[in-house]
Amino acid sequence: MEILVCVKRVPDSAENEISIGADGADIRRDDLVYSVNEWDNYAVEEAIQIVERVGGSVTVVAVGTADAEEVVRREMAMGATQGLLLVDEAFEGSDGLGIATILRAAAQRGQYDLILTGAQADDGAAQVGGMLAALLDWPYASLVNRIEVNAGESLRIGREIEGGSQEISEIATPCVLSIQTGLNEPRYVGIRGIRKVASVEIPMLDAAALGIAEGSVGQTGAKVQRVDYFVPQTGLGAEMLAGSTVELASQLVEILKTKGGLK
Amino acid sequence: MALEPFSPATATLAGMPARLLFLLIPLVGLGCFAWIMARRMIPLLRAAPDPRLQRVPVRIYLVLKIWLAQWRHPRYLLAGVLHIVLFLGFLLLAARSTQLVVLGFVDGFTLPGFGGSFGTVYNLLKDFAATAVFVAVVILAVRRAAFKPARYEVPKHLGKDHTPEALFVLALIAILLISESLFEGSLLAAKPEAASLLTLAGGFQRMLAGTSVPTLAAINLVAYAIHDLTFFFFLCFLPLGKHFHVLTSLFNVFCMRLEAGNIKPVRHGVAEGQLDALKSFGVKKFEDFTWKHILDFYSCADCGRCSDRCPAQAVKRPLSPRFISIKGRDYAFQHYPLLGKTNAGPEALIGGLYSEDEIWSCTTCGACEEECPIGIEYIDKIVDLRRGMVDEGLVPKSLQKPLSALEKRGNPWGKLEKKRADWAAGLGEGFRVKLADQGESAEYLYFVDSISSYDDRMQKIAQATARILTRAEVDFVILGKDEKDCGHEVRRFGEEMLFQSLKEQNTEAIRATQARHIVTSDPHAYNALKHDYANLPPVTHVSEVIAAGLASGQLLFKPVGDPSRTYTYHDPCYLGRHNGLYEAPRRVIDGIPGLQRVEMPGNCRDRSFCCGGGGLMLFYEPEEEQRMSVVRVEMARQAGAEVIVTACPYCLTNLEDAIKVAGMEGKMEVIDLCELVDEHLLAADERENR
Predict the structure, then answer these.
(1) CB contact under 8 A, A195 and B276
(2) What is B552-688's CATH topology?
(3) Does some domain include residue A239?
(4) Which chain B residues are closer than 8 Å to A190 by Cβ?
(5) Overall domain count for chain A
(6) Where does the pLDDT of residue B2 fall: very low under 50, low under 70, confident under 90, or very high at 90 and above?
(7) In chain B, what percentage of residues exceed pLDDT 70?
(8) What mean pLDDT is predicted for residues B50-65?
């Protein structure tokens, strides 16, 4: 099975103190560390495991600046067969549709049976997977937490439904799936793993190579513009419960039930 | 001085000269033994290299102390003393056994040098030795069969109980002793002079008194034959099980680790700069172990002391050091059989012989190695297995986050580098810390490390240390944002390349300061800088600086605030066991006038019980029934203490958590040594008023 996994380089929310820049439309990026988007990491692990079971190859693709090479290389150290970088100044400032358009161009250059994306990105809007499927006119399933490869041209997939239910579907290939975290345990990649793939060449394609028309993507092509970015004001604080231990416990259970934490 | 009818070499058996049989038994016995030993050598020859012949005088000293003098045995008093009797008796009787074997085909043989008065004394001694060993064997058998000490238990999933094997071997020893004594006694019975009644031989002499000489001679011959057969059966039986230690322990002790606190290189003979060239890291399959580590497996006597002292085992984590060895030995015996082809394949140890959780459960506290009477190593094996897991990407999610943060930010929480020295803002009036990243320099470098730099609670240790150093007039500087995590647990969790990277960055930053000494308040940093790093100025722990300040009068204490409270000192593993620093912290605590301190009996100094582990262990989520720290706080409470003093930020973290978990807030308190000292130090103006 030929699998394409779309990955994104994002500021790691756990290892940064996020603050808003002076213009108010973005975060301060000067002291940030980046990593691969967590959902995408699960997608790559899943792709590797599928290939380990049924054969094929895993290609990892990222849209961005040349910095994206760092995350593509990390995913290759995990075991992805090859990498692909889609880099062009014209891509900068793309909205979700723009990114999906760029990815479609890359997808059409190969013979993929399956495209995986993360269900969402740390700094994203959970939109690219669906858009990419629509642009390719391929079937799509979101929030996938289980994949089995059937004999023939279909997959049996599990999806997490709000409230914790599980839905099982059959989906025809080629298709696009957006991957939920927790469907596997992504393997660890250390410095040693990255060094091992340090000299592997990663092809880099620009807009011309991908045949993308100028102005259809990037800032100019974007039909969604971010106008503001802020950290919400801290609320009034915690709600303090009062009463005996038994009363406290039953109040707590009640709250957890209403908020959906308990069934 | 052969008495004619009493010489096995000249006797006849079924019309044949008995000498033939008594020549055949040793030949067959030694042949089998040589074959077995040759087969047992195969895995050792296929194993990874491990140079163990350096510093021979130290090794000889260790053999004399640990092996010959059985130094660690009396730590378990009854079993230890019995073993010493058995062991020394065995050594003494070895000469007699050798003589007996040759007596079977050389009439009247005596060992060279055993002829004269030495021989007479020896013969007297060996009878007492045989009797003493016999008594020990009886006690050991009763103990094993009737009292069944808990530490010998074998959990169901780990195989069969080892008691039958132990009893069988005790029986073999008893047969050896009885047959030798009967051989001697039957000879004595034909002589007029009486041997001591306190020996088995003397007993047999009395029993056989009045028996006719031909009968005595027959008994003598049968006793000899039994001894000869049992001796060679025993010799060949030893390498088949846990009694292999009888043969291997001498070599195991000679080859034991000479240093504490250090970790073996990824592969001996491969320099740190060449690690990238290695195809694989750590132990993944059995033959990736070093030959010494396989010799360890062979040498384990299954005495259970390691696991008895193992904190992971105490809280029912899925790790028992004893079974690391026993499973390893079983693997070697199964895959390298005595007969037929070896069937060692490239099968992965993790997920088969050992489980991931088992190997992550170790805090590397070193209690097992401290206890092992024959110098078996565990930490290096665990670290090697972890290196193998890290190389295969088998790292729990709970550890991947901190490792990634360490790689990116140099600390496991992913906090900003520029905030690393923020703790110094809370020092209080009159105190200031020099910063190397601002171009300042000093004689001492204070290596703070991540937890004391960033953790709100542990920053108090850094602050107390800075104030103490200032009062001790130690001119010091910190690295600030240029300091990275020391990587102590990064290395011990198997992420060698990340450790190397942290080490390089720290080494460069430290050397750039041109400081001539390093001081630290964190035993993990202390151990890393001392044993894992190279080419650094000498490293001291702050407790040594304080102890020196007290001795010189540079530092003076005011009386303890509340003299009614009882204190105890918890030895951090990486200060105590791994670095032998037991006295300085105690001297410091005892230097506070009016402070009452008790020890946790049986659980202090080199028998300290790990708090649960530091560094990355704070992030690992083990399977366990209880927290180690809760067990430790309970030990302190039972010792009658209300305040636990420790000298490690991780111990402080774990023990404070334990007090909350155990609901002992208000009843128990934990404090770092530096905080205690900081509270009791007299300021300069206070000193002048005295």
Answers:
(1) yes
(2) Rossmann fold (3.40.50)
(3) no
(4) 390-391, 403, 407, 495, 497-498
(5) 1
(6) very low
(7) 99
(8) 97
Residue whose token pair is 């069934």:
A263
Taking an 8 Å cut-off on Cβ atoms, the answer to whether B408 and A35 are in contact is yes
Shortest CA distance from A14: residue in chain B: B414
Q: What sign for the dihedral angle of Cα B382, B383, B388, B391?
A: positive
One-letter amino acid at A94 equals S
Check B416 against A193: CB less than 8 A apart: no
Interval B600-636: pLDDT, tens: 999 999 999 999 999 999 999 999 999 999 999 999 9
Beta-carbon separation of B414 and A190 below 8 A: no
With tokens 């895995």, the residue in question is B43
DSSP secondary structure code for residue B683 in this structure: P
Q: Provide the pLDDT confidence category of residue B690 given band limits of 50, 70 and 90.
A: low
Residues A191, B393: C-beta atoms closer than 8 Å: no
Do B285 and B348 meet the contact criterion of CB atoms below 8 Å apart? Answer: yes
Q: CB-CB: which of B390, B405, B414 is closest to A188? A: B390
By CA distance, what is A189's nearest residue in B?
Answer: B393
In a domain, A228, yes or no: no
Q: How many inter-chain contacts (A to B, CB under 8 Å) are there?
A: 59
Nearest chain B residue to A198 by CA distance is B276
Helix, strand, coil abundance in chain B, percent, nearest 5:
55, 5, 35
Closest CA to B170 of B142, B146, B198: B142
Interface test mutation site (partner B, options A73, A191, A199, max chain B beta carbons within 10 A): A191
Residue A13 placed within a domain? yes
pLDDT 10s digits, B494-511: 999 999 999 999 999 999
Instruction: Give, in order, the Cα–Cα distances in Å from A27 to each of A10, B219, B274, B470.
Output: 12, 97, 41, 41
Average pLDDT estimate for B149-162: 89
Instruction: Kindly state whether B404 is in contact with chain A, defined as any CB-CB distance less than 8 angstroms.
Output: yes
Q: By the CB < 8 Å criterion, does B405 face chain A?
A: yes
Instruction: Determine what percent of chain A is predicted with pLDDT higher than 90.
Output: 69
Among candidate residues B420, B407, B409, the one with its CA nearest the CA of residue B480: B420
Question: Where in chain B are the domains?
Answer: 283-351+358-391, 552-688
* Average pLDDT estimate for A19-32: 79
Residue B3 pLDDT greater than 60, yes or no: no
Residue A250 counted as domain residue: no
ipTM of this predicted structure: 0.88
Candidates A78, A185, A192; nearest CB to B397? A185
- B336 at A interface, C-beta within 8 A: no
Q: Residue A31 is encoded by which pair of tokens?
A: 């002291």
Q: Which residues of A touch B (CB under 8 A)?
A: 12, 14-17, 31, 33, 35, 78, 185-193, 195
Q: Can you name the residues that pair with A86 across neighbouring β-strands? A: A63, A205
Q: Can you give the pLDDT at residue A263?
A: 65
Q: pLDDT grade, residue A135 (50/70/90)?
A: very high
Domains B283-351+358-391 and B552-688 in one fold: no
> Would you state the pLDDT for residue A257?
84
Q: What is the mean pLDDT of chain B?
A: 95
Measured between beta carbons, the chain A residues lying within 8 angstroms of B418 are: 31
- B283-351+358-391 has which fold? Fumarate Reductase Iron-sulfur Protein; Chain B, domain 2 (1.10.1060)
CATH of the domain at A77: 3.40.50.620
Are the beta carbons of B394 and A15 separated by less than 8 Å? no
Which among B401, B418, B497 has the least Cβ separation from residue A191?
B497
Structure tokens at A101: 């358009």
What's the predicted TM-score (pTM) here? 0.94
Name residues whose C-beta falls within 8 Å of residue A152's C-beta, 6 or more positions apart in sequence: none
**Average pLDDT, whole number, for chain A?**
91
Give the model's pLDDT for residue B81.
Answer: 97
Query: Count of residues for chain A?
Result: 263
Show which of residues 415-434 on chain B sit within 8 Å of chain A, judged by CB atoms: 416, 418
